[in-house]
Amino acid sequence: MKIRFKVQRCRDLLWILFIYLMSGLESCKSPTVVQIDEKSITDFHLMNLQSANELNPEVKLFIDYSTCVAQAVNSSDFFRQIRPRITGLNPILYGIRGSKIDSISADKDIINQELSEVNEIPYADLETASKIICDGNNQAILITDGEYWTEGIGERTDLAYLKDPFIKWLARGFDIYIYIEGYEENYFGKNYSKKRFYFLFTDDRLSSNIFRELNKAFNVSPLGTDLRLVKLSNSDILVGDKLAVFPDLDSKLITDKGFTAFEIMSDWKSMDEYVLNAKNSEDGTPIAGGTYLLRGLKMASDENSTYNYSELGITVYNVSQSFLNNAKTDLSSCEVKNMFVLDEELYKKTGEIGIKISGDYYNSLSEESENLFRIDIYAKNTGKKINREDFEWKSMSKNEVNSSVFESILQTIDNALIDPAVTNNPLYTIYLKTNSI
Asked: Which residues make Cβ contacts (< 8 Å) with residue 92, sequence separation at least 6?
């Protein structure tokens, strides 16, 4: 009896062991793949933006107490159009009265009264005013003729006094718009052609962007032909049309608000067949390098930008682990070299973005989780677009051209902290959610 019991017990133990081993083998055959939640991709992207700087909603208005501004109040059609918009921003008015720069009022009636009574006060400290703006954390407007005078020297005609403040502002990821208005000013009985500058210090990412608010004035009355607009930015490019995934793949758009994110439901075997190893539909011959996984986005320099984006490149990152950990990403630690390639010739010819799969991508894929790739498009080479005549004028006090504002702009966009071809700041970002390998 005892022997039969022991035999039965051994059989039971062996059966339990068999079931345990089989379940272990089954789990090895079909591992649970960790899912990427597409609903969280936007939050992940915002968390990992290079510039986390945010401007306060308060707007500051800096006025150069000069003949330039007095004439704008009395005779400029452009100023007449934007004046109600400026006061509508509820700004705090700051007066630049020689070397004295002080806060005057946030009351609209007082601001309008002050504007109407502006008169010439020499030696406006524009350098300090621009430093106050760019060291601060508010959107701001600076209206001036750009003439910077110092004691003992007088008018500074070749001093790039705006360069350092501008670099500081742009390096923080913000933007500067400049309206340039030509006007005539009388000096000791002689008329001189001069420039009136409206510098708008803002951030394109803001819903309350002051450039967009002021520009609404021209939906009713278009800009005059005597006006120029220039934009300074270190990560600015026009994006048009829509990016699309190769149509034979099963995919869906997650978002295209500020960046683009797709989920590709087709497996990698299908991507190999239809994209990487694509064949010519007419004769069945292989297409060199395969066909495009992503195509359709158009990118070009803004007509008001100071840069031409003559050559673009891409950097690819597998950010799956950072996403799953809900952590800010150290991009340098998750860059993958042989995943996707940009067709640079297609961009140079048409301005279109076309991205293909690299033939050596397998080591860049995860087996344990779905993959989330981040593709950053950046400038490999830039040309400068700046018209000297927009920023220079004949000095009224010296027999020479005043190039101080021109030199400020030129040296700003040439600076290594600002030039997109040096900083490699992303011009546009794409996310791809894919299956595990």
From this structure: 58, 59, 60, 61, 103, 104, 105, 106
Q: Where are the beta strands (DSSP E) in 256-343?
A: 260-264, 294-300, 307-318, 335-336, 340-342
Which residues on neighbouring strands pair with residue 150, listed in sequence order?
A: 154
Per-residue pLDDT tens over the stretch 305-340: 999 999 999 999 999 999 999 888 888 899 999 899
Q: Is the pLDDT of residue 28 over 80?
A: no
Judgement on whether residues 42 and 127 belong to the same structural domain of the protein:
no
| Predicted confidence band of residue 284 (pLDDT cuts 50, 70, 90) | confident
What is the tally of structural domains in the chain? 2
d(CA 259, CA 43): 12
pTM: 0.86
Whether residue 197 sits in one domain with residue 82:
yes
Tell me the average pLDDT across 194-202: 97
**Residues 294, 275: Cα–Cα separation, whole Å:** 10
Residue 10: inside a domain, yes or no?
A: no
Question: Please, which pLDDT band fits residue 26 given cuts at 50, 70 and 90?
Answer: very low
- Using alpha carbons, select from 386, 274, 292 the residue that is nearest to residue 347: 292
Q: What is the DSSP string of 175-200?
A: EEEEEEEEEEEEETTEEEEEEEEEEE
pLDDT tens for each residue of 64-114: 999 999 999 999 999 999 999 999 999 999 999 999 999 999 999 999 999
Alpha-carbon separation of residue 292 from 249, 350, 352, 419 (angstroms): 11, 15, 12, 30
Range of the domain at 178: 56-232+387-418
Same domain, 165 and 199: yes
E strand or H helix that includes residue 292:
none
Residue 313 is assigned to a structural domain of this protein: yes
CA dihedral of residues 161, 164, 170, 172 (deg, nearest 10): -150
Residues 317 and 198 in one domain: no
Residue 219 shares a structural domain with residue 258: no
